[in-house]
Design goal:
One of its GO terms (molecular function) is proton-transporting ATPase activity, rotational mechanism. This is V-type proton ATPase subunit G. There is one protein chain. By secondary structure, the chain is mainly alpha-helical. It contains 1 helix and no strands. The protein has a domain at 1-36.
């Protein structure tokens, strides 16, 4: 009796797994059909934005680095306003 129950359980699991794979395959097909043309459009848009950002980066890289270095290297020692000399 236990053996038959185990066999039935294994058969049911296999059937469930097969059904799940089939439904997933159908879903992927519908998803690809719905997003097929839109997906390539989004990809193209993303590539264009990426190209524009890379161009801006190349144009402004040297200026940003120069400003950053100037800010970091411009040392002006001063006493903090909350420092009390006489304790």
């Amino acid at each position: 009796k236990n053996r038959r129950l185990k066999q039935a359980k294994a058969a049911a699991q296999a059937e469930i797994e097969q059904y799940r794979r089939q439904r997933e395959k159908e879903f992927k097909a519908k998803e690809a059909a719905a997003l097929g043309s839109r997906g390539s459009c989004v990809e193209k848009e993303t590539q264009e934005k990426r190209t524009i950002l890379q161009t801006y980066f190349r144009q402004n890289r040297d200026e940003v680095f120069d400003n950053l270095l100037a800010f970091v290297c411009d040392i002006q020692p001063e006493i903090h306003e909350n420092y009390c000399i006489n304790g």
